């Protein structure tokens, strides 16, 4: 193991949320905490909220929330049960960013159920931001993650059916259950975020989308807010969408307005009619916002423990 990779045990089990009481006591002008996530991810939000309500860190909340989607075989766009690439491999992308601007990412990672937790270890245990492919897998195994088969029978059947035509057409709003991007503001007023996905179904082998790329699939600036993206990663990458949303909020736009302007950037510069991109954002005051190109994008918002499914406004 390399000198910076610290061996940790029990990484595959959920980390108990540690109340951050020193943080809470320090806080003045405390804002109401909030957790939001892309799509219908109430269970993931509930796991994140458990951390937040104990006074835990937003970073722990978003990791725990993302892990719920990663472990759910019914969510065929994330982690275990994710739809494979065109060669039948489940390849995963994830990233995480904390309140100090630290970031960790993994892309093209195979056979590890919790890429978001590997991304956190990249952030905390290495001098790097991104590890990819075989290197990411090697690191994950070194720090205690276990290799697993992530291709479920359902996803394998879909892939086998797809192979009959091998028609490569990105799908919009797949079953309204897709990549999870999650943002949290904790009781201490700190913001963190995470994003995790199996990427586009039946993508070319080696394809990496926006989700693990800081500034594209996720961006956090604790002075301003956070944003995360879902949908066609190529469109988000070309416009560095999440960074754009945060910078627009820095200039005074509300989360709603900032998400809309980032979508409009795609609408003005790219062929957008057949693709979906949705952004969600929160600011330092705990205000939330969202906007998408196409109708059908929903997100889950949790405040005071209640989770609501919100419909994002859209350009079309
Ligand atoms: C990607 N943005 O890999 C991801 C896919 C996604 O909703 O978000 N789907 O391009």
Task: Please describe what this structure looks like.
The protein is α+β, with helices and mostly antiparallel strands. The chain has a single domain, classed as (Glycosyl)asparaginase (Glutamine Phosphoribosylpyrophosphate, subunit 1, domain 1, 4-Layer Sandwich), CATH 3.60.20.30. Helices cover 31% and strands 22% of the residues. It is built from nine helices and twelve strands. The strands form two sheets. It has an eight-stranded mixed β-sheet. The protein has a four-stranded antiparallel β-sheet with strand order 7-8-9-10, with helices on one face. The longest helix is centred in the last third of the chain and has 15 residues. The chain is globular and about 50 Å long. The N terminus is likely disordered. Bound molecules: N-hydroxy-L-asparagine. The site of N-hydroxy-L-asparagine has 13 residues, from strand 8.
User: Got a strand count?
Assistant: 12
Compressed to H and E, one letter per element, the order equals: HEHHEEHEHHEEEEHHHEEEE
**What name does the CATH topology carry?**
Glutamine Phosphoribosylpyrophosphate, subunit 1, domain 1
Q: What can be said about the biggest beta sheet? A: 8 strands, mixed
Strand content: 15-25%
Supply Rg.
18 Å
Q: Identify the strand order in the major beta sheet.
A: 4-3-2-6-5-1-11-12
Average pLDDT works out at 89
Can you tell me the CATH class?
Alpha Beta
CATH superfamily: (Glycosyl)asparaginase
CATH architecture: 4-Layer Sandwich
Unreliable residue stretches: 1-29
What is the rounded distance between the termini?
51 Å
Q: What are the bound molecules?
A: N-hydroxy-L-asparagine
Going by helix content, strand content and strand pairing, the class is alpha+beta
| Helix count, DSSP H or I runs of 4 or more residues | 9
| Percentage of residues in helical conformation | 25-40%
